[in-house]
């Protein structure tokens, strides 16, 4: 029974194993970045950046068709351009980061939809927006695993300045010149993981696997390490469960994975011991004065 | 030898000066209070020293000090108290000059962190989340971080606001310790009794320099009256200043 429901789809079909590997790579690479996005109160920045990469991927598609390399490079260029331009505007003008990012990503998104609509087909647009996790080829898997490895390595190197940049940016600026480097490297990690994610889950769903497990893990762990471990575990479980649901009930796999992550989030929100609804409602013991 | 020299320094926001043509020297190893009415430019002056605010005119010279030798406690810290950090994590940030972004904490570092936490009276709070600290406890933790920064020039912006007498007495002890070790301390303060009791030198500002020297000669009724008048005189419509630093 369990074999049929859980193991057999992966044992029998190569595309399921590839999808699983791709999702595991995204879970390992993107979810820790999502934890920092959440802790920096930038959860919606991931969504904005996901929209911002669209015109780059569309131009890549126009130039070379459904080419992994061209769409990846295009997405990276568009995402980094929006991140750098909005960062530049924030630092040299009176406009705050949320407004400047919103302005650039909306322009970018409109441009992307225009390019895809005039030159592509609806099928192509659906590919970019919702990904094709069940059709990952070797090149796509290599890209996803490379991005995950690079992302984890960079986060490990950047961990201390990133924690300072999140918790006390004023202090980091006073003791080090790494503040701007940290900020832009972090945004580059966000863009890189979204570009990797959109091959499997699409530009919109890629943000889901980044943010939902992170938000869920916030209710289970008090420290950053625990949050990252919890978020990666939740992302992996969501991936396996979502793929199986998609297989058994013929559902689109990207949304299925993200919806399972959403269920994890809802359960965590209610039952999570760190600030969850039940934990807050129950009478709590307290320490002596 | 001066630790700091303000050379015809003008600092401000959006072309409105908050510190106007300030000419003064801060001696190395001195303990100086900066006083003045609200809007006198006290906090702005400290931001100018840290480099967070570029001068509109003139400059700040540092003698033998480098920017890394400065530790700064802002009036309103940008610390995100909801971020999952413990007291030890926060205090350990003060070791940045030694550990940098990559080096791990060695046993000697941990000993120094423990000593700094003990020096500010926060023993037993090491594993407490910073979000669970009171205002006074948080200020103690920030002083412990300053202790670890081991800086030659310490800038404190209203460090004793909204804390109780006991905490203030403990933190004043830390300030005296810095002074005893020959560090230069500049603190923005409002309570003249505290300034008279603990700060040998005072600089009174009202956008421009009112007086600077031994505390008992600066904190006179005449200077205080003049400072208030100068600040009130600034309230009129702005006009372009004709003076310029050489």
In short:
The complex is a heterodimer of chains A (289) and B (246). Chain A is mostly helical.
Give the fraction of residues assigned to helices of chain A. over 70%
**Structural class by helix and strand composition of chain A:** mainly alpha
CATH architecture of chain A: Orthogonal Bundle
Task: Enumerate how many helices of chain A there are, as a single number.
Answer: 14
Q: How far is the N terminus from the C terminus of chain B? A: 23 Å
User: How many domains of chain A, as an integer?
Assistant: 1
Which secondary-structure class do the elements of chain B indicate? alpha/beta
Largest two-chain interface? A-B, 23 and 25 residues
Radius of gyration of chain A using CA atoms only: 20 Å
Radius of gyration of chain B: 19 Å
Major beta sheet summary of chain B: 6 strands, mixed
Q: What's the CATH H-level homologous superfamily of chain A?
A: ABC transporter involved in vitamin B12 uptake, BtuC
Q: End-to-end distance of chain A, in Å?
A: 54 Å
Total DSSP E strands of chain A: 0
Spatial shape of chain A: globular
Strand content of chain A: under 5%
Widest β-sheet, arrangement of strands of chain B: 5-6-7-3-8-9
Could you name the key traits of this structure?
heterodimer, A: 289 residues, ABC transporter involved in vitamin B12 uptake, BtuC, B: 246 residues, six-stranded mixed sheet, 9 helices, 35% helix
